[in-house]
Amino acid sequence: MAAENQSHTSQSDLPYVLILKPPPSFALFGDHVLDSPRFQYLKAYESPLPLPQFLHTHAHSVQAVLSSGRAPVTADTICLLPRLGLVVTTSQGLNHIDLSECRRRGIAVASAGNTYSADCADSVVGLLIDVLRKISAANRYVKQGLWSSQGVYPLGYKLGGKRVGIVGLGSIGTEVAKRLEAFGCSISYNSRTKKPLVPYTFYPNVVQLAANCDALIICCALTDETYHLINKEVLSALGKDGVIINIARGPIIDEKELVRCLVKGEIRGAGLDVFEHEPDVPVELFELDNVVMSPHNAVFTRESFEDLCKLVVGNFEAFFSNEPLLSPVALDHLPHFSGGKD
Amino acid sequence: MESIGVLMACPMNSYLEQQLDKRFKLYRFWTVPDKSSFLASHKDSIQAVVGNAGAGADAELIEALPKLEIVASFSVGLDKIDLAKCKEKGIRVTNTPDVLTEDVADLAIGLMLAVLRKLCESDRYVRSGKWKKGDYVLTTKFTGKKVGIIGLGRIGMAIAKRAEAFSCPISYYTRTEKPDIKYKYYPSVVELAAHCDILVVACPLTKETHHIINREVIDALGPKGVLINIGRGPHVDEPELVSALVERRLGGAGLDVFENEPYVPEELFGLDNVVLLPHVGSGTVETRQAMADLVIGNLEAHFQKKPLLTPVV
């Protein structure tokens, strides 16, 4: 995994990987957790030069970029890197990468692949049980000493037999379905295309899916089509006994509308790992016991991070050895997100 | 049946209370200032007792009610009922199995996820505004972790089925090994604890299983192990558990039950690897309704001389 430390001077032969901003793994494990003896990093964030100048200076040496959610790869950046052949992102999401530009330039993209799918699915189930059974709220109640002073806690709602609607039946959505079936939930979904070999009920649009489920789970990518996909109409169809869980991307939900529905009791509750303007979270949600929130950490487990580090290094090493990438993303049919995260 | 006296041991469910009030002569034991004189003056009118996980019918109460014919528990656990005494006196006993199995199993998994993935603490982190200053810590993956179950009855099996969907290898301890079970059996709780990552208590509370989770078991589970208790508080030697958690000799715990409810050891309040719930295992609108209907159904069946729905004795 992490190679021994190397000094700057001795590897003029090693190819460069550009890092615009440090990925989450660096803060957690240190700067050398993604090192390899087969390539070296060029850390733009350590340079006093403004980015465009830095890129201009090093343009000819950069063949690959290490990206993460907070380090988007825009058309402007790509433009300044004529030798760029690969973008590896530490995330599963791709909305922070200009995929059309990569496609146009023939730049390969590799993501976290399936590394996070289990953790994401586990988060979904955890958040759903928490919202329905009021785990976080009841835990607060007990830890404040209120059980002995104020008595019995209000009842929650049963998960078994509930209808679960999954928006986006990709690797995460599939893992969610597999888990919730074991709890006696019935599964339905909406996806860009109906999946022929899947035993779950397909709904052609999200409004119909919402109208026919008790728990709506957002597992799709953020693209131009899915921006604010969950809007007033969908939330109204979900209704006052419905719960929504989002571990995908904040902008898929019209957050203002979601907050309004929650405050007014127009839906039963929400479990949210992502928000439109992270790390800012609407303060109205802090008053609500039927909302469970997490700081975009649905995939932040020690185990997944260790797997991810191996995958990131493996992808770069494969690229520089002209071998197939470990977790390539097929760009041909992927829709783009032009909203861009800054 | 309005003349039949039913003694309700403690408040448990307002729908149940309402229904019992309508159909029988309901006595609310917790509103009585002097319990022994009440029993003395009402001993000939009380023919049924309705109890729950908190209060039932011990030998003393049974002896004080010579006309007692049936004890209907608003729970599946029977540890608050003197079953031997009931058998001796020909008193019927019913409980509420099956209807609450799923909820309790769901909560067990919910607690596992909450403890390992620090869901409650993550929620607290966001609410405190700390996210603006930096990311929260890494947590522990649940998928694939080894789950050890004490007691493989309805609830234990339901927990196993759910955990399997997360690719968790399942092992168990019961008094005797069960035939036709594909899970790995361990002949002692200590061995089970030594070989799993998450240990869950899902057996009935009896003299034998009192303090089944003791110092030895906690040591075997270890600093990376997690204990989940959705059984009864007295299954666990609580002071031992508290010191193990405070001293970080045990990795974490998710507890729905305690030795002396509603009192929970305050040393646990500040621990971020502990999730504490106020005995809500069957606490959903849907299930409490189903449980109440079972209690009412059993009482009506008894007094109409029909077969009991869910008899134990």
From TrEMBL, chain A:
Molecular functions (GO terms): glyoxylate reductase (NADPH) activity; hydroxypyruvate reductase [NAD(P)H] activity; NAD binding
CDD domains: HPPR
Recorded GO CC terms: cytosol
D-isomer specific 2-hydroxyacid dehydrogenase catalytic domain boundaries: 54-329
Keywords: Glycolate pathway, NAD, NADP, Oxidoreductase, Photorespiration
Keyword Plastid: no
Keyword Metal-binding: no
Example GO BP: oxidative photosynthetic carbon pathway
Family: Belongs to the D-isomer specific 2-hydroxyacid dehydrogenase family. GyaR subfamily.
Protein name (database record): Hydroxyphenylpyruvate reductase 4
Domain D-isomer specific 2-hydroxyacid dehydrogenase NAD-binding: 125-298
Signal sequence, start to end: none
From TrEMBL, chain B:
CDD domains: HPPR (cd12156)
Domain of life: Eukaryota
Domain D-isomer specific 2-hydroxyacid dehydrogenase catalytic: 17-312
One GO term of the biological process aspect: oxidative photosynthetic carbon pathway
GO MF: glyoxylate reductase (NADPH) activity; hydroxypyruvate reductase [NAD(P)H] activity; NAD binding
InterPro entries recorded: D-isomer_2-hydroxyacid_DH (IPR050223), D-isomer_2_OHA_DH_cat_dom (IPR006139), D-isomer_DH_CS1 (IPR029752), D-isomer_DH_NAD-bd (IPR006140), NAD(P)-bd_dom_sf (IPR036291)
Domain D-isomer specific 2-hydroxyacid dehydrogenase NAD-binding: 109-281
GO CC term (a single one): cytosol
Keywords: Glycolate pathway, NAD, NADP, Oxidoreductase, Photorespiration
Stated family: Belongs to the D-isomer specific 2-hydroxyacid dehydrogenase family. GyaR subfamily.
Protein name, per record: Hydroxyphenylpyruvate reductase 2
Species, as recorded: Hibiscus trionum (Flower of an hour)
